[in-house]
Model the fold of this input.
Amino acid sequence: MTFLSRIFNRGMSCQQVAALLQQYLDDELDVSDVPKVLDHLEACRRCGLEAEMYTRIKNSLLNHRESPSEDSMSRIRTLADALSGGVVPEGVE
Amino acid sequence: MREARRPVGREGDAYHVGVEATRRQESKEGEDGFSRYVMPELDVLMRVARSITGNPTDADDLVQDTLLRAYRAIDKFDGRYPRAWLLTIMRNAQINRVRRKRPELMRDPDVTLAIVANTDSDAKTPESAVLDQTFDAAIERSLAAIPPQFREAIHLVDIDGLSYGEAAAVLDIPVGTIMSRLHRGRKLIRNDLTLDPEFERTSS
Done:
């Protein structure tokens, strides 16, 4: 954040945003703080790049997500459907 | 001959008809609750079970166990935070399963998560599909290198998609601890990337 914007804009400081950045990226931040963090990220290049880097890291980590096999999903859905109907299938403890 | 007291009267009388009706009503509500609260969470349960157990077969068994426990407990569930409720059931089920079946092989969940974290996946989001493969490879190396407790938090939140509260329920630790581990783990990954000249431009 530039020197002038620090003087004229009484928004969050870099330190305050750094403390809230992870919660913001995880959608866990209090809604009242979201606009303040957003304003700062748009105005401050350094914090904006930091947020961009963590966003890239989060997106990259999603590649590790494994989808269960169709067989597994089908078995579990069959059991869940039976239980939804009030039936405990034979052989299931 | 004196007539039997009401509570032990003949089947078909007004008392028993009422009891049966109540049972049917409770059973119906339980079935409705199961459909409403459990069915939407099957995908998440499958993902987290895979993270906890480390292999597909055990994951299937764990989800099955979790569903049965949820089915039996659904009448007592108040309907608040179903995912966290189910994840707590899953955690307890896993503890019991491991204790009962293979105490000598009781795996450290941190080690389990480390193995899972290093496994490739076919499932890519549109956003992640366009990311540079070199960047992904660097992230993978960094993730494998950070302390297990940080990796575990990152796995549950960033990979399995749990909220802080849900991840805390799985690990039975305070939300603040999840946040702390998550932040420290990500910072280590981020700092690791900074040391890589290829990413210096975007990370500084």
